[in-house]
Amino acid sequence: MRKDFQSESTNDTFIKEANGSVVVVGASLSGLMTGIALSRAGLNVTILERAGAKPRSGAVLQVDSGEIDQTKTAKFLRKIASGGIRSAEAWSSIQFRLRTEAEADPKITLYYDTRVQCVNQDDNSAWVVTDKGETFHGDILIGADGHRSIVRRYVASHKPSATFAGYLIWVAIVDENDIPEKHRPSLIAPKLSMPDGIGDFLLGSIIAGADGSNALGNRRLGWAWYDNTQNDLLRRLGCVDGNVVRHSLNASDIPEQTLIELAEQAAVRWPQPWLDATLHSIKTRNLTGTPIAEYVPDNLVKGRIAIVGDAAHLPTPLTASGFNASLQDAAALAECVAKGIQGNSAAEALLEYESIRLKNARQIVQSGQSFSRSFGR
């Protein structure tokens, strides 16, 4: 349902008067950034999200490559997403800041628990139909609905699905005070580490606590364990069907024997503090197994409809490029549509966006494929 906008947006005088409308499918990071950027470009924005309004958790992201930002919109999105901190961040912290900004913008309407069933367009508009029979129209329609994108099935019907890369990543975030004090990293410890594994590896990040504190004992440890030994399990549980990723492996569905084996493997693989962090996550079932999918786009646009973020390009997380690419998608799209989207201008603006972003989108995915082909099996 629509939110009441009580707080003032931090948008500045760059915002233009509304001169068109857009429907954005998806309210994860990419969808929120796209909605904010398009509002600043002068559009009335409707964002549809299939999940509920309850805050969600996620992994750790790098958001600090601000030197690539060339436009006011890109710099603005970076400032909102990062909170002015140039470091690794919890997904939930980034999403909270973006959502707060979107909810404070009077030109953005957010609908949760709204599952899109199909998309379509004609010469005058583009629209979606939800599972409840609701129809939402816009001058343009943007798919920011992730690696299982409904919108991509329309835009790239010849290549609708991302493909399984051959491995999963176990991810979790642990409060620092949940591990023994003697193993907590010092304040001068590296914020990012990669302990050696035996055929697999782990990325560990020290991030601020949920309250933003970086004081010793108040921080969090985020870890991501790259594991190429669980493919049979993923297929048996329906997480992967053939070559297509269907869903993640939630903690409650992880077999007890798998958890026992992970704990045994961690004991001989990871040094402190990552050993205690992984063992605590395993013991409390505070972890998720995410099968990795990849998608190299051939096109980003079809008429009045376009795709951004993971719906448009899906690289292995090892490239650490997904968030930055999504931000650049949103900023480039805003620059293109700011010139106007009336009549034929809508399709022309989206084609300009595609010409700016397609080559880069393909390259970021391809840059990680050599790793996936050697590591995944």
Give a verbal description of the structure.
It is a single chain. A six-stranded mixed sheet has the order 5-2-1-9-18-17. Helix 1 (29-40) links the parallel strand 1 and strand 2. The model is unreliable at 1-15 (pLDDT under 50). Helix 8 runs antiparallel to helix 9 (345-375). It folds into two domains: 21-161 and 295-375, FAD/NAD(P)-binding domain (3-Layer(bba) Sandwich); 163-293, D-Amino Acid Oxidase, Chain A, domain 2, CATH 3.30.9. It has helices spanning 29-40, 72-82, 91-103, 150-155, 231-236, 256-269, 274-283, 322-337, 345-375; strands at 21-25, 44-48, 60-62, 88-90, 108-111, 116-121, 126-130, 135-138, 140-143, 163-175, 192-193, 201-207, 220-227, 240-241, 244-245, 288-294, 301-302, 305-307. With 377 residues, it is an alpha+beta fold.
Features of this protein?
23% strand; FAD/NAD(P)-binding domain; globular; D-Amino Acid Oxidase, Chain A, domain 2; 377 residues; 2 domains; 18 strands; alpha+beta
